Amino acid sequence: MTIRLFNTMTRKTEEFKPLVPGKMGFYSCGPTVYHYAHIGNMRSMIHNDILKRMFIENGYTVHHVMNITDVGHLTGDDSDSGDDKMERGAARDHKSVWDIAQFYTDEFLRDFDDLNNIRPTDMPRATDYIAEQIDLVKKLQDLGYTYEISGDGIYYDTSKFPAYGALTGGSVAGNRAGARVEYNDAKRNPTDFALWKFSPKDKKRQMEWDSPWGIGFPGWHAECSAMSMKLLGNHFDIHTGGEDLSRIHHTNEIAQSEPITGAPWVNYWVHFSFLVNKSGDKMSKSGGEFLGLDAVRKRGYDPLVYRYLILLGHYQTQLAFSWDAMDAAANGYKNLVRRVAELLLDTEPGALDNAKFDEWHNRILSPVSDNMKTAEALVQIQELLRTNDVNASTKIALFEFVDRLLGLDFIGRAKRMNDTESETAPAEIMALADARAAAKSAKDWARADELRTQIDAAGWTVVDTRDGTKITKKA
Ligand code: AMP
Ligand code: ZN
Q: What homologous superfamily is domain 4-272 in, according to CATH?
């Protein structure tokens, strides 16, 4: 099936052409592990996951690399001035930088897994690739792209790269607007950025390494260029990240990489829009107030309700989060799960109908393959549940595919719903069901029917399935 994606570089929705037939390699900018991830970060992770699943269902072998940033991401608006977010987080938590990196990575992965995201093929930590980052800076130095600012670091001279800023249509003038740090005056161009920062003379850093230029640490952008090239090669298919990253971080990644690899380095750039709060502000870790997935769990929602909420929107549109929206999503999701649960209890599911399977498989996969229109796929799924034209076996087989494509675990949650609901039927209903089972084994069909009517009148449904009798509460 044709796959189409919006490419930030060309500002067009383009047909995807793989570098190697049947294979897709992509790199996603992952979390900076100085604090808990928030549900905005998790929105990006869900879209990455849909991208991956969509390619897999189209028959591709996918190589996904997502980094863990555990050094070098600075607090300044330009992200290479100010304090290191990791060192600041360690001081806040009264732990070592290494300890908080491990702690918040583990927490991030717990959320990542609870949202049913498939783990990346590789999850490199920036601190494990210092040699590669030093090597990248050396190569850029040999090619004449760098200069040193005494006492500060090695900088990239953006005037040497004519295509600088192409990712955002050349609009990088505001890149340094927020930078207020004095040594910025020493930069040759306002858009220049740090490749290697020297450790401060007056303070001992917990994370620092020796380099040809002196003791210090890599600039934030260096890790993504160095690790992606190492793990995916000098030319790969797709690079993703949140929309905040295109203007500086990805622009700088391109500037660092293309002189080394020869253009182009990445074929498609995919950016995910923000999750925002009611007033339209980006949810951010540095912005103070933010919600983690734990807040979602604590309010009693299944984390997959959040995933469902995200899939109701489109990745190129900002989404305003509210608990009302979560309630609506919870109802919608539960309804779907309930209807799948009913399908599983169908006593006459029929034989798999291949023609119908193919037709609906296509109807559901097409919108997702067309620039990841998950909301349209969800509309198709509703229609599939409604139609009388497809038997239960075929619908169940299609839901197995839907679960692979969207990761909403409809079948798993439906099975769980059937199990809990038969367990939690009140004692008097269970007594009626037991009496009915006894009547059935005594072949007293009239009595069995009478008991079924009583169970029904009490608001419960009793169904005999291949796995035994199931009792479910009526919707
Ligand atoms: P960070 O941990 O801040 O480095 O971000 C990890 C990933 O989440 C990056 O791809 C960011 O672009 C993305 N991200 C950050 N904030 C949001 C948000 N509010 N909505 C969607 N994605 C975000
Ligand atoms: Zn990155």
A: HUPs (3.40.50.620)
CB distance 241 to ligand 1 below 6 Å: yes
Write out the H or E segment, with its range, that includes residue 402.
Answer: helix 392-406
| Ligand 2 geometric centre to CA of 161 (Å) | 19
Interhelix angle 220-232/251-261, nearest 10 degrees? 50
Give the separation between CA 315 and CA 374, rounded to whole angstroms. Answer: 9
The whole-number average pLDDT for the span 239-245 is 96
Which letter does DSSP use for residue 312 in this model? T
Per-residue confidence (pLDDT) for residue 180, from 0 to 100 = 37
More confident residue, 99 or 72: 99
**Cβ neighbours for 330, distance < 8 A, ≥ 6 positions apart:** 301, 302, 305
- Looking at residues 267-290, what average pLDDT do you find? 86
Q: How many CA atoms lie within 13 A of 138 on its CB side?
A: 10
CA–CA gap between residue 131 and residue 120 (Å, rounded) = 23
The pLDDT tens digits of the residues spanning 299-351 come to 999 999 999 999 999 999 999 999 999 999 999 999 999 999 999 999 899 99
Question: Where are the domain boundaries for CATH 3.40.50.620 in the chain?
Answer: 4-272
Which of 79, 244, 281, 306 has the most ligand 1 atoms within 8 A of CB, as the residue to mutate? 244
pTM of the model: 0.88
Give the whole-angstrom CA distance, residue 1 versus residue 20: 16
The whole-angstrom separation of Cα 245 and Cα 269 is: 11
Model confidence pLDDT, tens digit, residues 121-137: 999 999 999 999 999 99
128-138 CB burial, b ≥16 within 10 A, e <16: ebbebbbebbb
Atom of ligand 1 nearest to the CA of 245: 12
Question: Is 1 within 8 Å of 56 (Cβ atoms)?
Answer: no
Average pLDDT score over the chain:
92
C-alpha of residue 41 to centroid of ligand 1, in Å: 4
Edge-first strand listing for the sheet containing 266-272: 61-66, 23-28, 236-242, 266-272
Computed over its alpha carbons, how large is the radius of gyration of the chain?
27
CA dihedral 384, 390, 396, 402 (to 10 degrees): -40
Which pLDDT tens digit goes with each residue over 397-444? 999 999 999 999 999 999 999 988 776 788 889 889 989 989 988 999
pLDDT band at 172 (very low <50, low <70, confident <90, very high): low
Instruction: State the DSSP H helix or E strand holding residue 220, giving kind and residue range, or none if neither.
Output: helix 220-232
